[in-house]
Amino acid sequence: MIKVRTAEDVAWEMAAQGAGCCICFPPENFRNTYGLTVTPLFFPDGTPVMRNTWLYYRRERCNTNLKGFIAYTEAAR
């Protein structure tokens, strides 16, 4: 059984359970408690691969859970 503690743990937990592999952009404070092989990605010139997070949603559908998720992602910047 896969037990997930937080939403961002889904891919790591699935990979740890043998359900495949993942390419993730973990936070700087990520602790590898899953025993996974973690390899940083770099461009040929040596700069690290970075990404932006985009979130599209309808304001009329913005409930308490979505507001919490938005606040969480904005705080992680």
UniProtKB/TrEMBL annotation:
This is LysR substrate-binding domain-containing protein. It comes from the Bacteria. The lineage of its organism: Bacteria, Bacillati, Bacillota, Clostridia, Lachnospirales.
